[in-house]
Write a structure and sequence with these properties.
single chain; alpha+beta; Membrane-bound Lytic Murein Transglycosylase D, Chain A; Glucose Permease (Domain IIA); 2 domains; 10-stranded antiparallel β-sheet; two-stranded antiparallel ribbon; 12 strands; elongated
């Protein structure tokens, strides 16, 4: 038994010591527990990324390959075709002018003359035919390089009738409206911008098959002699045209008209109005393309001015 009067420190209860330890050291213990819990939560928030996924994440986006331009198409000219019609029907960028530039070697120097059977390339140049025609053109050019008059007529033909480019050697006027003793007249008054058989290095036919009279749109066009209207209407590359059959067996053609005032089967007299000049079909400016033929169709042309003079027309 302890000595009386001495104070002894009471023994602490084990349970109490446990609480004290928890109370004094609990903060120390609790802090790492909280940290561990936070880290564990963070691991759950961020999904695991595999090496393959990491590579895919930084890989560049797939590049869509550029579309290959559409391959050029070849078109075969049929009766009634003209460049502006083809360009419109095939939705060609640049219109008939671009189509003509791409196929100039095939068409020739006059865009108003395209013939059935010609092969035109739509959308790009036609190198094979271009090479062929270029060689032929070079041969023709070399053959006629010393002919100054040929070069002059070639330049006037390409101008396709603007008055400022009329050939200096062409007559300044004609006797349109003045009927000769035979009942024939010139188709209209005015000079000639492109003479008959004017040559050009790039012409598909090799020469001009008629004469081009200088005329602004709306100029009255006369039948050159009495006859019967063989055809009147769309002439393809010639635009609106009239073809008249005459008693001597010849045919006269009037092309690129802005309007027509006669119809097929109608009888006409020399000097009668048959339409108005214009720029329909394939042309680079308003004018009248005039031909005299031995038949109604292209390719049967004869010298139109010589034929008119034979009928007493002063031109």
């Amino acid at each position: 038994m302890p000595a009386k009067g001495k104070h002894r420190r009471p023994k602490a209860n084990p349970i109490t010591r446990g609480f004290v330890a928890a109370g004094t050291g609990g903060a120390v213990v609790a802090l790492p527990l909280i940290g561990a819990t936070g880290a564990h939560a963070a691991e759950k928030a961020a999904p695991t990324v595999t090496p393959q996924q990491a590579v895919a994440a930084v890989a560049p986006a797939a590049v869509t390959p550029a579309k290959t331009p559409a391959a050029p198409k070849t078109y075969t000219v049929v009766r009634g075709d003209y460049l502006s019609k083809i360009a419109t029907e095939h939705h060609l960028a640049g219109g008939w002018q671009k189509l003509y530039r791409d196929n100039r070697q095939v068409v020739g120097g006059n865009p108003s003359l395209i013939l059935p059977g010609m092969k035109l390339t739509l959308g790009a140049k036609n190198p094979a035919k271009a090479a062929h025609h270029k060689k032929a053109a070079a041969e023709r050019t070399q053959k006629g390089s010393g002919d100054a008059s040929t070069r002059a007529s070639r330049g006037s033909e390409r101008s396709s009738a603007p008055a400022s480019t009329a050939s200096s050697s062409a007559p300044s006027s004609s006797s349109a409206g003045t009927t000769s003793a035979s009942g024939w007249v010139a188709p209209l008054g005015g000079g000639i911008s492109t003479p008959y058989r004017a040559s050009g290095a790039m012409w598909s036919s090799g020469y001009h098959t008629g004469v081009d009279f200088i005329a602004s749109t709306g100029t009255t066009v006369h039948a050159v002699g009495p006859g019967t209207v063989y055809s009147a209407g769309d002439g393809g590359a010639y635009g609106n045209q009239v073809v008249i059959q005459h008693a001597d067996g010849t045919f006269s053609q009037y092309a690129h008209l802005s309007s027509i005032s006669v119809s097929a089967g109608q009888t006409v007299t020399g000097g009668q109005e048959i339409g108005l000049s214009g720029a329909t079909g394939n042309v680079t400016g308003p004018h009248l393309h005039f031909e005299i033929r031995t038949g109604p169709d292209y390719g049967s042309d004869i010298d139109p001015l010589a034929a008119l003079r034979q009928h007493g027309v002063s031109i």
